[in-house]
């Protein structure tokens, strides 16, 4: 029998495997566990639709875990006249700040402007569609754009208006001397985007036995019948859905080919970020972001990431949807850019403690550069065989607009099924957004004040579940070299957020790769918890440990001979 949603579960992934035994004919199969796939899964689950979500890798991989961690309207998209997208994104940013307040916060963005009017002509030319590329950033163009940007984000939850500083003695210390003005505006920062995806997933699964989600699952399709194979146990299930939602991001066209269709919907553009351990830069950035011109008219972002600084992003056209590499050229570009911001600070590869890399699944169009390509989203509907099975491809999109895109996808699915919407997510709080007091949490579970505060920072109101799980264990000690994360917390993440591999934990369930970087001893300690919880074969874990210690996304550049993989 499928457990009721109120029944406590010790292993959410195992529970989904049991549910799959009964979900042989779900209404919907979602392929892809990124933010758009999980958002659609949540929306359908809340509306009583039977749905299965599977991912051949882990949940929240690819572009969903390699974003700039911003909830933003897309200021620069105004230059390309994407007004509908910017308006939608600005309103969704406001919703995230309101309904995911434990993980999304307003953040001031400083824009150093090298010219008052220089570059204005090219910006206007692109705005009018007369030229493809923008020029150097100008104050005149930026102020005009910000006025429109703030108008599109207006409402009860509007962020503060932008300000302009022209006096150099009021600029940030040692800012590049070419800067003539500094503009401050507000957008949002998602402090833990992966955590938000796992909250969506848990909320969907809590709706009952009509939904199931499985990561690390291979699949094949034969005339509308899907065979799903758990990569670890080898067990197989077959399902025949009425609708297939292809939410595989950069792999959409490849997946459609496996379903029997030929499509060319996606332009894959890879983006990389550097996570920097540089105390001087962290202090200078402080609790604000810098959005600055790299000297060629292309904008680069540097924003606070706890005790680190995140710098990005690159834009490289790719054809392989599995390409997660970060080239030396990309690293050098980002280092050169950040070194142009302040005159007294030098950042080198030795400061890179980890990297992120993902492929944006942009809509294929006739745009020239990756920078100028549209960031809007679109739903594509196909039928590839005579089974009548509908395939809905979720093409494009931004992290900020995932809820709206998911709602649009769910509405299309509901219409296909002849079902009516019962519940909207527009004004719905995310699970961790309820108020949570650190003092009460510490007193209830016998935690230190610092430990309680750390848990609330990571999980919001869900911190109480994590704390209760940890204190009930016979052993719950700090990880080797990590004072604010315990073995019990790692076990909770394995059992409740379906982590199955070392990379799942290090890159998508925790922030252990940040700070000063992760040590080999910490990696081995996490692996020991994984082995004890899941009884994984030790030779498999030994290979994972070796791979992790060679992976620049985990250990950065300082520990692998200053070179990226």
**CATH topology category name of the domain at 12-63 and 195-265 and 375-417:** FAD/NAD(P)-binding domain
Q: Indicate the mean pLDDT.
A: 90
Q: How much β-strand is present in the residues?
A: 15-25%
The level 1 CATH classification of the domain at 12-63 and 195-265 and 375-417 is Alpha Beta
The value of Rg in angstroms is 23 Å
Let me know the largest β-sheet: 10 strands, mixed
- Separation, N- and C-terminal Cα atoms: 47 Å
The CATH homologous superfamily of the domain at 12-63 and 195-265 and 375-417 corresponds to FAD/NAD(P)-binding domain
The assigned CATH architecture of the domain at 12-63 and 195-265 and 375-417 is 3-Layer(bba) Sandwich
Helix percent band: 25-40%
The total of beta strands comes to 19
**Uncertain stretches of 5 or more adjacent residues:** 1-9, 125-131
Shape: globular
Helix-and-strand structural type: alpha+beta
Can you count the helices? Answer: 18
Structural commentary:
With 565 residues, the chain is α+β, with helices and mostly antiparallel strands. Among the domains are: 12-63 and 195-265 and 375-417, FAD/NAD(P)-binding domain (3-Layer(bba) Sandwich); 267-363, D-Amino Acid Oxidase, Chain A, domain 2; 473-555, no CATH class. 34% of the residues lie in helices and 20% in strands. The strands form 3 sheets. Strands 3, 4, 5, 6, 12, 13, 14, 15, 16 and 17 form a 10-stranded mixed sheet that branches. The protein is globular and about 70 Å long.
């Amino acid at each position: 029998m499928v457990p009721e949603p109120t029944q406590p579960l010790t292993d959410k992934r195992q529970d989904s495997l049991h549910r799959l035994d009964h979900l042989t004919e779900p209404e919907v199969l979602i392929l892809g566990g990124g933010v758009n796939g999980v958002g659609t899964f949540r929306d359908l689950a809340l509306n009583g639709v039977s749905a299965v979500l599977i991912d051949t890798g882990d949940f929240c991989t690819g572009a969903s875990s390699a974003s700039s961690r911003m909830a933003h309207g897309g200021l620069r998209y105004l230059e390309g006249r994407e007004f509908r997208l910017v308006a939608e994104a600005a309103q969704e940013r406001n919703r995230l700040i309101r309904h995911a307040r434990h993980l999304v916060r307003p953040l001031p963005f400083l824009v150093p402007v090298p010219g008052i009017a220089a570059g204005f002509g090219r910006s206007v030319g692109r705005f009018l569609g007369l030229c493809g590329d923008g020029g150097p950033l100008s104050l005149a163009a930026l102020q005009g754009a910000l006025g429109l940007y703030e108008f599109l984000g207006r409402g009860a939850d509007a962020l503060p208006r932008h300000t302009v500083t022209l006096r150099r003695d009021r600029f940030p210390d040692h800012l590049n001397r070419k800067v003539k003005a500094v503009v401050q505006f507000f957008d949002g920062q998602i402090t833990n985007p992966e955590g938000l995806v796992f909250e969506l997933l848990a909320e969907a699964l809590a709706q009952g036995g009509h939904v199931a989600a499985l990561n690390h699952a291979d699949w094949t399709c034969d005339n509308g019948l899907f065979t799903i194979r758990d990569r670890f146990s080898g067990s197989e299930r077959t399902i025949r859905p009425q609708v297939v939602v292809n939410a595989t991001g950069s792999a959409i066209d490849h997946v459609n080919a496996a379903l029997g269709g030929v499509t060319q919907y996606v332009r894959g553009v890879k983006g990389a970020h550097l996570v920097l351990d540089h105390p001087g830069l962290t202090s200078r950035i402080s609790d604000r972001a810098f959005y600055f011109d790299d000297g060629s008219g292309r904008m680069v972002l540097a924003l606070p990431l706890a005790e680190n600084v995140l710098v990005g992003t690159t834009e490289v056209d790719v054809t392989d949807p599995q390409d997660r590499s970060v080239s030396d050229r990309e690293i050098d570009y980002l280092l050169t850019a950040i070194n142009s911001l302040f005159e007294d600070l030098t950042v080198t590869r030795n400061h890179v403690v980890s990297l992120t890399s993902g492929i944006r699944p942009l809509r294929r169009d006739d745009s020239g550069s990756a920078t100028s390509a549209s960031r809007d989203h679109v739903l594509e509907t196909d039928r590839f065989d005579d089974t009548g099975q509908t395939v809905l491809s979720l093409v494009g999109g931004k992290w900020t607009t995932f809820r709206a895109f998911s709602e649009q996808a769910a509405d299309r699915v509901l219409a296909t099924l002849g079902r009516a919407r019962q519940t909207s997510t527009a004004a719905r709080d995310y699970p961790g957004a309820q108020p949570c007091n650190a003092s009460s949490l510490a007193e209830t579970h016998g935690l230190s004040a610092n430990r309680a505060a750390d848990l609330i920072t990571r999980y919001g109101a869900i911190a109480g579940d994590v704390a209760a799980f940890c204190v009930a264990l016979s052993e719950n000690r700090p990880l080797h070299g990590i004072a604010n994360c315990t073995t019990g917390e790692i076990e909770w993440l394995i059992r409740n957020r379906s982590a199955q591999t070392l990379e799942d934990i290090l890159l998508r369930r925790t922030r252990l790769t940040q700070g000063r970087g992760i040590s080999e001893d910490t990696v081995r300690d996490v692996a020991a918890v994984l082995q004890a919880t899941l009884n994984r074969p030790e030779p498999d874990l030994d290979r994972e440990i070796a791979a992790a210690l060679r992976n620049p996304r985990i250990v950065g550049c300082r520990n692998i001979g200053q070179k990226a993989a």
